[in-house]
Amino acid sequence: MQIAANNPNRKSWLNVAENCDFPIQNIPFGVFITKDDIITIGTRIGEYAIDLGAFHQLGYFEGIPLTDDMFMQDSLNDFISDGRKTWRLVRNRIAEVFDAKNASLRDNLKHREVIIFDVNEVEMLLPIHVGDYTDFYSSKEHATNVGIMFRGADNALMSNWLHMPIGYHGRSSSIVISGTKIRRPYGQTLPNGETQPVFGPTKALDMELETAFITTDVNNFGEPISVDEAGEYIFGMVLFNDWSARDIQKWEYVPLGPFLGKSFASTMSPWIITMDALEPFKCKGPKQETGLLPYLQQKNTENSFDIKLKATLETENGDLNLLTESNFKYLYWSMSQQLAHHTSNGCNVRAGDLMGSGTISGPTKNSYGSMLELTWGGKEPIVLKDKTTRTFFNDGDNVIIRGYCKNDTIRIGFGKCTGKIMPAMVPKHLK
Ligand code: MN
Q: How far is Cα 401 from Cα 126, in angstroms, rounded to an integer?
């Protein structure tokens, strides 16, 4: 089936500013609450949020097999569970109805009033009920940098790293929507030069510049899927800030890996950009140097995406300080390889599961995806516009991640993924 929604020549009757992340070729999916307190699944064109619950009720999806309440829900899980064919039919229909030449909704003011909202008048909610969250560690540059800092240059990349996409099972309950304030966490750390650990607010609160992908039901319990079919089960992608407390992480991570240094919060952007919308931006990933085991060998080498990413620090005086610019295409392991590896032991992956890419660092210092790397373990502080310095983040800092794809004809963007850091709060029982 053709992805008619991707037609780059299509214009909408809704106004879309130049360089907007959400032209009619994007058609992402999200969940929002209107000012009348109605929660619905929706999409976005330009600065307009479109209520797909109302759109469906008023008959605009006629002919597409959908349950009556498909979009009148507080999560996209059921829709995602319906599979690629439905996603494509729905996106194609939305594109058709909002096409400048289509008068059906354009000229029906009554319907427009209940379907279309100013995006600033709705509140975005978490778009999926995240069942399981897995975080990979798939940037070779990031793994090498962290390895040098934690273990020295001789041991930087562990011997397993080039043979499989390394990952760990994260915590889904603390995944929050962009804009949610992030409280500086307490934790146990071993201060430099000490032999006794202490308990207190982290002194090394960091970001991880990541993307994440969301899956549909992938496989039955006990049945691995192949790397060549894995892509069929990926619904879409979001921006993802996997907040990390480096001092807590450093003390706790041996022998079982990340735990409380990561699980206090991860922030995701509200609009899920479908893999269909990203199709024009497919590209080759880095060459994989080591001979891979057959279950990870992918026939299609155009298995990455050219997605420009950047992180900005907004200080309390409103200054915007660019921290880094990276790109999804630097990732060594593809999403299909991650998913094939994930199911290779028979572990079942379900609709609404979220897979983080791991910090995406590029080859140069201005493309590193964490403060840990940008300040080289805190040794090279960053000087901001207001002349203050940062090794890690201060209270009051607002971290903004943005991402977009662009070619000669269209720009498909992700919007923003933001989180402002709040001061630590003394736990009640310790007051
Ligand atoms: Mn991470």
A: 17
Determine the pLDDT at residue 290: 76
User: Which pLDDT does position 430 carry in this prediction?
Assistant: 86
> Where along the chain do its domains lie?
4-125, 133-430
What pLDDT score does 289 carry? 76
Cα 164–chain centre separation: 22
How many whole angstroms from 137 Cα to the centroid of ligand 1?
7
Question: pLDDT value at position 168?
Answer: 97
Closest alpha carbon to 352 in 191, 258, 214: 214
pLDDT at 150: 82
Tokens of 292: 């891979």
Nearest Cα to 328, choosing from 300, 309, 303? 309
Q: Which CATH number fits domain 133-430: 3.90.850.10, 3.30.300.30, 3.40.50.620, 3.40.190.290?
A: 3.90.850.10
- Segment (H or E) for 263: helix 260-263
**pLDDT tens figures, 359-368:** 999 999 999 9
According to DSSP H, which parts of 20-139 are helical? 52-57, 77-81, 84-97, 103-106, 109-115
Annotated catalytic residue: which of 56, 111, 142, 342?
142
Residues within 5 Å of ion ligand 1, judged at the Cβ atom = 135, 208, 242
Question: What is the per-residue pLDDT for 48?
Answer: 98
Distance of CA 262 to the CA centre of its chain: 16
**Ligand 1 center to 71 CA (angstroms):** 31
Examine the residue annotation and report whether 142 is marked as an active-site residue of this protein. yes
What radius of gyration do the chain's Cα atoms show?
A: 22
Distance of alpha carbon 392 from alpha carbon 246, whole angstroms: 9
Common-topology check for domains 4-125 and 133-430:
no
> Tokens 């000490």 — which residue?
194
For residue 120, how far is its CA from the centre of ligand 1 (angstroms)?
30
> Which DSSP state fits 281?
G
Token pair belonging to 122: 């709705």
Domain 4-125, second-level architecture: Roll (2.30)
Tell me which amino acid residue 301 is: T
- Report CA(355)–ligand 1 centroid distance (Å): 10
**Can you say how many angstroms the Cα of residue 108 is from the centroid of all Cα atoms in its chain?**
36
Query: What residues in the chain have per-residue pLDDT under 50?
Result: none
103 CA to centre of ligand 1 in angstroms: 46
Report CA(136)–ligand 1 centroid distance (Å): 7
